[in-house]
Structure formats: structure tokens, C-alpha cells
Design goal:
Blueprint: E1 2-8, H1 13-21, E2 30-36, H2 49-53, E3 57-66, H3 68-81, E4 90-96
Antiparallel strand pairs: 1-3, 1-4, 2-3
Amino acid sequence: MKEIKAVIRPNKLAALRDALVALPGFPGMTVSKVEGCSAPSRHVARNKIKDELTDYTPKVRIEIVAPDEVAEDIFRRITEVAQTGHYGDGLVWMVEVERAAFIFKTMPGSPEL
């Protein structure tokens, strides 16, 4: 099982949602509004330190826990749909999940994800 996280531009969320929902086995996702900035070396130098300290851009963070069978397809779909070809498009990463279960399934012997 994998956890896939991504930070993307907000204007890409609707298209990404449609693309992910169309994938067989897509388990759903959590979406949060976040702000962030890239490393100073990745964009034009600022004139004032204040500009560098307050240069936060609105982003959307997506979190998905998915079975191994669909995780690579989800990862690939995010990178394809969320890109614009410019700095600041975002970041996507995937990590191993040891165990996960739906909270509403609390009875003994209930299946895990």
C-alpha cells in the first residue's frame, strides 16, 4: 500500500479530480488548501528580503492512500495532469504505508484497506 501526496496549483484541481476518478480502483483523496514557496535559487532574485519572506503562493495539497496495484497509475496521472511547464507547478511523492483501515469499520475482523 502507498501514500501519494502532491502539492499542485489550485487551477489544476478540477482536471486532476476528473482524471483520477476515471482511473479504475481510485480510492478517493483528501484535499487541503496550503501555501508555499520554492527555493530562492529556482526563481528570479528579489530586491528586498521582505519580498523573499512573504512570497507564498496558494497551492492545493492532495493525499491519497492506495493499493500498490493503482498507486503508480495515480502517481503518473498527477504528474501528467498537474503540469504547466513552469516553475511552481508543484511536487508529488509516494511513500510506503505499513497499515491503514477505514475508521467506520471498527468491528473485530473487519478488513483493512
